[in-house]
Amino acid sequence: MVDVVGQYHRYQGELDSAIMEVVRSGKYINGPYVQRFERALESYLDVEHAIACASGTDALQLTLMAIDLKPGDEVITTPFTFAATTETIALLGGKPVYVDIDPETFNIDPEAIATKITPRTRAILPVHLFGQPANMTRIIEIARAHHLIVIEDAAQACGAAWDGKKVCGIGEMAAISFYPSKNLGAFGDGGMVTTNDSALAHAVRTIANHGSERTYYHDRLGVNSRLDAIQAAVLNTKLPYLDEWNASRAAAASQYTESFSAYPELIRTPEVHSLATPVWHQYSIILPQGRDSVVAHLKASGIPHNIYYPVPLHLQKAYAEGKRGDFPNAEFAADHILSLPMHSELTDEDVEFIAHHVLSAVGV
Ligand SMILES: *Cc1c(COP(=O)(O)O)cnc(C)c1O
Q1: 55 lines ligand 1 (CB under 6 A)
Q2: What span, in angstroms and rounded, lies between the C-alpha atoms of 203 and 292?
Q3: Confidence of residue 2 (pLDDT cuts 50, 70, 90)
Q4: How far is the centre of ligand 1, averaged over its atoms, from the C-alpha of 56 (Å)?
Q5: What is the pTM of this model?
Q6: Is 80 exceeded by the pLDDT of residue 65?
Q7: pLDDT of res. 23
Q8: Which fold would CATH assign to domain 4-99+107-240?
């Protein structure tokens, strides 16, 4: 699905020396390498504050702790995402409140949000799923009208834009993941919170550092969440190439879409909203006639593929509150979606080969 080793080989010299520089410096925790990467990401994303932490999941937790999410507080989000999106809401005693997705983009349906707002609602947590921004224009309008905070789950969308503005700087806060398979991936775990609000930035930084602003003085409950200096150096070396990699992904996505365009009743290709500039974390198709035979064919041909995500969150045992039929669009997507290989190292020949096999699997 992704070729992380292939990408490493392309930049091996640069990456090896960045890693060894940290090792030789002895500055392993926080320090100049982490700061350098934070400043570089601020400038890349056009945000005021980027605060490094240990993972995308931690980044989400830090944003929710920074707004003082209290037990019983509700956060409106999508059921069609990775569990990390809502895990941290529940861990803090909050309640994830789901609304259905837009079947065209797989992102939260903004028009469904207003119906779920209650006096306990604190925040809206849209996910820019598969690298395509959610409809931030409508989400921000709804949030402003109801005095809600917007936290963007941008784990899959570093570099994506909505209406000409990069995601991560649109809501009050955003969470990014540097998990190795993400568009900007470390050689291990890593995450970042971004915000344009200096009070929130200060809160996030303090919470991530054991709730401490001055060593051994703890003003609030915190956690230990840090980005390794080695990972920061790796990410700082990779960041200048991110746009180029995202452009390769976009080219592969266009080639897939073109290859399947004559057969919309057999293969539904991803729709891109006219205001969205996606970064194609995944290329996911819908197989309305069922995916089992296609999965079997791809498996037999040795072509990587995956199902993101087979069970929507309202039907997961950990959140056993929902039932089948609650969110039909999310359930349909979970039952019919299939993601094809997507990464910066795909060649035209690779995409042609994969598309050819998908087409023959559906009987074309
Ligand atoms: C990967 C991911 C996360 C979590 O990131 P980690 O760095 O793995 O903790 C959160 N939300 C979404 C949508 C993700 O894809």
Answers
A1: yes
A2: 48
A3: confident
A4: 5
A5: 0.97
A6: yes
A7: 98
A8: Aspartate Aminotransferase; domain 2 (3.40.640)
Q: Is the CB of 82 under 6 A from ligand 1?
A: yes
For 242-361, the fitting CATH number among 3.90.226.10, 3.40.50.150, 3.90.1150.10, 1.20.1060.10 is 3.90.1150.10
* Residue 84 CB–ligand 1 contact under 6 Å: yes
State whether the beta carbon of 77 lies less than 6 angstroms from ligand 1: no
**Measured CA distances, 243 to 143, 178, 246, 335 (Å):** 30, 15, 5, 33
Query: What are the Cα distances from residue 290, in Å, to 11, 12, 262, 293?
Result: 40, 42, 18, 8
Q: Would the CB of 88 count as within 6 Å of ligand 1? A: no
* pLDDT tens, residue by residue, 207-225: 999 999 999 999 999 999 9
3-state SS, residue 4: helix
Instruction: Say how many Å lie between the CA of residue 67 and the centre of ligand 1.
Output: 20
- Kindly give, in sequence order, each residue whose CB lies less than 8 Å from that of residue 103, ignoring residues fewer than 6 positions away: 329, 332, 333
